[in-house]
Structure formats: C-alpha cells, structure tokens
Known about the structure:
The protein has helices spanning 37-41, 48-69, 89-106, 115-121, 166-176, 183-191, 216-229, 233-263, 278-290, 308-320; strands at residues 2-7, 12-19, 27-35, 79-85, 110-114, 134-139, 144-151, 154-160, 267-271, 294-296. It is an alpha/beta fold. It folds into 2 domains: 2-121 and 302-341, ATPase, nucleotide binding domain (Nucleotidyltransferase, domain 5, 2-Layer Sandwich); 131-297, ATPase, nucleotide binding domain (Nucleotidyltransferase, domain 5). The strands form 2 sheets. Strands 3-2-1-4-5 form a 5-stranded mixed sheet, with helices on both faces. It has a 5-stranded mixed sheet with strand order 8-7-6-9-10, with helices on both faces. Helix 2 packs parallel to helix 3, helix 4 (115-121) packs across helix 10 and helix 6 (183-191) packs across helix 8. The radius of gyration is 20 Å and the shape is globular. The chain binds 5'-O-[(R)-(carboxyoxy)(hydroxy)phosphoryl]adenosine and zinc ion. 5'-O-[(R)-(carboxyoxy)(hydroxy)phosphoryl]adenosine (KG4) binds at residues 10, 140-142, 167, 170-171, 182-185, 188, 272-274, 276-277, 304-305.
Amino acid sequence: MVVLGIESSCDETGVALVEASGSAVPALLAHALHSQVEMHQAYGGVVPELASRDHIRRVLPLAQQVLAQARRGLAEVDVVAYTRGPGLAGALLVGAGVACALGVALGKPVLGVHHLEGHLLSPFLSQDPPQFPFVALLVSGGHTQLMQVDRVGHYTLLGETIDDAAGEAFDKSAKLLGLGYPGGPALSRLAESGDPVSFRLPRPLLHSGDLDFSFAGLKTAVMTQAKKLGDQLEARKADLAAATEAAIVDVLVRKSLTALERTGLQRIVVAGGVGANRHLREQLDAACAKRGVRVHYPELSLCTDNGAMIAMAAAMRMQAGVQQARADYAFDVKPRWPLDALAA
Ligand code: KG4
Ligand code: ZN
C-alpha cells in the first residue's frame, strides 16, 4: 500500500510517499519539503494568508517531485493522506482540498491525520524505530506535552504547558534578542558561544509536583534582563541566549524524567521542532543513559514539519486498524484539536 502524505498546517509544505506492507514498519520512499521561512521573515512571524497561498503554489510540484524521486506514477498511490489539524485553518484547507481532489481524480480514498500524531510517530521513520509503549515529549512551536503512548491511537496526556509552548519560548526570547524568525535555531546557535550560568533565569513549575509546564514567565525574565543590560546587551547576548536555552532544556529534561518514573516506562520519544535542539538531546541522553532508559528521536531533517510523518501516521493507523481511508471526500479541518481527543 502506497500512501501519499501532504503536510500544510503552518509554514512548510511537505509531501512524501510511504509504502506499507503487512505489519512491518512502513518504509519512506521519498519526501520533499518547501519552507516558507524566507517569505515570512520580513514580517517577523508567519502570515497566515501568505502561508495558504504559498501552499497552493508548492503542493503539486512537490508531489510530482516525490513521485519522480520514488520512480512511481500517480496511479500507484493507494491512499492520499493530509494534515487535518491542528494548525492554521486556511493552510490546512489547502492540503485537505488538494488531497481530496487527488483522491477523486484517482478514485482513491483519503485520510485526515492529526499533525501531532505525525510528530509522535516520526521516530518510526528512523533506522532504529522505538517499540510501544513509550513516553513521548512533544515539543513544537505550538505545543509542549508529555504523553503516554501505549500503541497507535492510544495516547494519554500526562502533562502540558499551561501557557507558552517550548518552541514559543525559544522564538519569543530570540525575538527579544533581535534574532528574527524562526528564533529557535538562531538562539540555539548563538547559545553555543555563551555561558549558561551567567544569568539566573526561572525554571517555572519545576517543583510543581505535576507534569505541566509554563514558559510565559521565562520570556518576561529574558525581557527584564535584556532591559537591565541596556547598552551591554550586545556584548552579553550569547550568555543570555545560553541561559535561556539552559532554562528551557532543564525543565523539559526534568519533567521527562518524572514522567518516566511515574509511568514506569523505559523508553522516551522526543518529537517536534524543538527536538532538533542539540543541547536538549545531549542533556536528555545523559540523564536517560544513567537510568537505563532508551531515547528515540526522529532523523534531524524530520524533526520539524514534513510530509513523511503524515504519510507514516496514516499508514500506521490503517495498519493498526484504528482508522480506514474514506472515499466520501467530505473533508473538514480542525485548527484546534487536542491529541488525546483523537478517537482510536
Ligand atoms: O514542529 P515544528 O516544526 O512546527 C510546529 O508544529 O510548531 O516546530 C517549530 C518550532 C519553532 O518554535 C522553532 O523555533 C523550534 O521548533 N526549533 C528549535 C530548533 N529547531 C526548531 N528550537 C530550538 N532549537 C532548535 N534547534
Ligand atoms: Zn509541527
């Protein structure tokens, strides 16, 4: 079964082809991505209307590209999968509309995927896929959640952010430091040359006793420090970036360890854009190695949004028998859609 996956929930257009046979982990045949980062940079963030229009321009050429790469024809596609939510409504509608149009034209069924489930299952695209059950740390631009994943479609929310997401904390702090958009990778690069203990920044909810997160206060603390520094900010920017990164990573690692202790699980999967952060990987790897816990990440190139994770999630849901592709082409999108509300 060949699945064509389309991702268009935010500022990347991703298309991929995945093949599933029997109960084996589905294989990635090809994937292609167009990032809109350059287009949105001038505005300091994602402009939803521009995002939708650009998805329209990119999605079909990307589909042709992955088919050529995989040496497959459109007629060989068995199912067309798309991101149904959460995300920007207009952007989601492009992927859903194109997927359904392709489905109708090819006479093939379609399947709407939860974007976060895509991230969650993306480590299955790696050379060393995890085994169920595991704890998942989902850290993207809009979400920060710890989930217990028992099997495909069975997700229990253990804790989540009560305000900003970890990616948002990276992005907003980066903006305060004049690093532009998207801030996460830029702040992380600058942090390499800074001293993480040069500033004392808060670790919100670290000792709250639950698995929830709060990052809004951190952004305010960064702003206060930046104001205090005044003229000296430029010279101390790398230190402040390093201290910010350390505070975010510290909380993410400690709460992940608590989630592992509480669930008694010995495996953790890290997914979402912030999962690309080198510091987070190093800290989590070191802490988990001490406890004999296995850590799984998606390939670095598949940490941020992509079509491969959407095709993969669709293939795995069908394999597990929790969802079938449909040919009524009555699509909707869900800009807000909690992952644990996903019907198994
Ligand atoms: O999963 P993703 O691509 O999109 C969403 O679904 O939100 O995540 C994007 C987020 C952004 O906040 C970006 O700044 C952050 O991931 N990010 C990083 C790094 N790479 C991406 N944050 C810290 N360090 C990185 N290396
Ligand atoms: Zn994402």
